[in-house]
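pasting for the record
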Amino acid sequence: MRMHKKPLNLFIDESLIRNARDRGLILSRFLERSLQDYLHYETTDSIHHLKKQKELVGLSEFESESLAPKALLYGEKQVLSITEDTYKQYLDVIEINGICNEWKYSIDRCILQPYFRQLNWKISFSKTLDYLKTLKNKHTLSYYRKHVYQIRKFLEYNGVVWASKLNPPPEPQYIPKRISSDAIQDTISNYHDNEYYLQVKAIILLGTTSGMRAEELYQLTLDDINLDTRSVMINHNPNNGQSTKTKRSRISFFTDEARHALTEYIEFYQNNNGLKCLFSQTHVERLFRNGKASIQVKDLRKYFSQIWDRNGGATSIKKILMGHSLKGDVDLMHYNAQSPEDLKKIYDKVMGHARSGI
């Protein structure tokens, strides 16, 4: 039977609409589903059905026929039973929204499925609070925030009203770590006798002169690097296992010193069957955990940002090269358009003399 939909004008508090949109809630879908559920439970056998759910829901008693369905649907007693189809649909939705397969896998296997299994695939407010309390006591704030956010996002997608109460704590005050040229030089020198010295040197010099995120470095392929133009394409292509934080592809550049290091490493890489990709995340992270590194891969981008400013480079161009979100920057969103050729000229003026000292 074909469903005919009719537009409806509603007057809703503007702040509620804004908060709902900020959390990714589709208002029309939520209202339609809530109305369908309410009408379903208002049928003659709804109270009989609710009594069967008494133990699951956790209500001491259903005091009246009119109160019971509302308590289940709209209060903190609301329960969501996860089905395979419901969950698969959600994973499909976040996939088409542009996340890469690796991040989708992490959300699925490391965040949502452990949560579902702990609650026996029947989600309630009280059990969710207990689960989150355990996470908060056992893990770092960053880990806990990530889980709260993804769990809330899933619940809001499924119209769970009490999900809006699950707010992760604010990030602690952060003081950026100052990265010096000496730290870069010392780290490279410490790997001089390592089997993968050329790889370590290449990723450090590429990261410190291009401003790429660690995850973007790990996803690079040979096709993304142009040694002749000293340019690197940072692609957002989830189907190919590549993604960026802003879901946009961009171009950046690297110095002559980095080009020399990349040339040496690529020759080594192409003649070494032990390496399956340029900068495998697990492989690189293992190298940097052995105690020889005074910096981490995530610090390379910090060095680029700091040396750019020390050399007097424009913040607007730095944002473009580093792939910052341009939301809220009126100039970059509406006025400041630069071609790849323009960016390269500006880059060379600012970074042309930047060297690690190696």
